[in-house]
Amino acid sequence: MPCCFEEREHLTDEFKVKYNRFQRVPFIHDNDFILSESVAILRYISRQYGLGEEWYPRGSKEQALIDEYLEWHHLNTRLHLTIKQYAWIDPTTGEKPDLNQLETWKKSVHTTMDKIEELWLKNHKYICGDTMTVADLFAACEIEQPRMTGFDPIKGRFKLESWLNSVRNQLDPVYSEAHLFVNKIAAIQEKSKL
What we know:
With 194 residues, the protein is mostly helical. The chain has two domains: 5-36, no CATH class; 60-193, Up-down Bundle (Glutathione S-transferase Yfyf (Class Pi), Chain A, domain 2). The protein has helices at 13-18, 38-48, 60-80, 83-87, 99-120, 134-144, 158-171, 174-178, 180-193, and strands at residues 27-30, 33-36. It has a two-stranded antiparallel sheet with strand order 1-2. It is globular, with a radius of gyration of 18 Å. It starts with 12 loop residues before the first helix and ends with a helix.
């Protein structure tokens, strides 16, 4: 089922019963098996069907390094890059964002970007080494989203810009297609600054 967040289909009882009890994407249905949450889906698909060795290697140590980032990601990259939720008017209440809270979140984004550069990209081209893995895809997708608010978390950060451009280039045209909505909204935000 294609999901359209603009129409808020994911908040319906039907969606909750048929597609995802958490009323979010992503989710998969593999015959009668229903699963949500991106990391759980990744690990299930890897075990059940195999992923390309380059994305999620079978080697215990290589996979552990990716898992280490994926676990860190939830309470760091994902949590702190939710600035997009604070930078727009809340569509459910019509309230404008609290500017003090917005500045606090921007600082946490900068701290998270510092940590990605210092902890994950310090000695490597990619998050978990010198080849791209799903860890890079998870990080890149999260880092792209704040641009929809007019805030670019990697602006002026050579190491992060180089890494993200490498991810984009290696995965295009699929990457650009997957980020079509993000890029469209980011372009509108950029024009509004002029």
